[in-house]
Design goal:
Blueprint: E1 2-7, H1 10-17, H2 20-27, E2 32-37, E3 50-51, E4 61-62, H3 64-78, E5 87-97, H4 100-106, E6 111-116, H5 124-130, E7 133-136, H6 146-157, E8 190-191, E9 194-195, H7 205-223, H8 235-251
Parallel strand pairs: 1-2, 1-6, 5-6, 5-7
Antiparallel strand pairs: 3-4, 8-9
Helix pairs in contact: 1-6, 3-5, 7-8
Length: 252
């Protein structure tokens, strides 16, 4: 899979993504991550890409043409056409909140363009021209789209076969089935007088899986009850979740 990140700060993006698991996957050729500097496509001698917004207001706005020319350069490299346009994600607080389901959806793309805004945003006309998806990292405002873009690349990349050492691990992480991940433990067996749950030492795989599932339900009911409406739970699991919910209400 290839990621194309349109940004004013390519070094920031590449330095953050060329390490750890994502960096190793890039070295192996499983992933390709290219950062396209929008300033390279500015049309003035100072390489400026911003200007004052019409109608007044605080701050500066990224102009349409440098963004559009960057997009056209990417399309030229990947062989895109008017009939087969690439998917372009604009990182914006106005977009849909990014989640695991979206990561799974985006992971099926061969080419994905991520557009990072800056200043007070980007001229609306070029957004209308090229953007296919508006995605938000959450209900807060950042100085630019670079950090959300890096977050998305990381989350999506984990779902690409071969990126993780153990591909199975991606199937059992938080949010995969609308439940938070169960607690995990490693050596030593006792740490600061805290004992690893005995069931994990039993060697009984069916009981271990049952315990883990129950712990996921408990954690989700405690910390992210909003996820439960999408989860497929048994009646016994719903009973556990309701007990946790009722206990929280009493404590509140």
């Amino acid at each position: 899979m290839r990621f194309h990140i349109m940004t004013l700060f390519p070094d920031m993006v590449l330095n953050g993504l060329n390490t750890s698991i994502i960096g190793r996957a890039t070295e192996k050729g499983i992933l390709q991550i290219e950062a396209w500097n929008i300033r390279d496509y500015a049309f003035n001698k100072h390489n400026s890409v911003d200007d004052y917004p019409y109608g007044g207001g605080a701050g500066m706005l990224m102009q349409a043409e440098p963004v559009f020319q960057t997009y056209k350069a990417i399309c030229g490299e990947i062989g895109a056409s008017d009939d087969k346009k690439p998917r372009v994600v604009y990182l914006s607080p106005q977009g849909r909140p990014f989640n695991q389901s979206m990561a799974e959806e985006f992971s099926k793309e061969e080419e994905l363009i991520l557009l990072c805004g800056h200043y007070e945003g980007i001229d609306e006309r070029v957004l209308e021209e090229i953007v296919t998806d508006y995605v938000s990292a959450g209900d807060y405002v950042l100085t630019g789209g670079e950090l959300p873009a890096m977050m998305m690349v990381d989350a999506i990349s984990r779902l690409i076969p071969g990126v993780l050492h153990n591909d199975v691990s991606a199937e059992f992480e938080s949010f995969q089935d609308h439940l938070l991940e169960y607690p995990q433990y490693s050596r030593p067996e006792v740490w600061h007088d805290k004992q690893v749950p005995p069931i994990l030492l039993s060697g009984h795989h069916a009981n271990v899986e049952k315990w883990r599932r129950e712990q996921s339900v408990i954690r989700t009911a405690k910390w992210r009850p909003d996820l439960l409406k999408h989860a497929l739970l048994t009646e016994d699991e719903w009973k556990i979740a309701r007990e946790i919910r009722d206990k929280k209400k009493i404590n509140e």
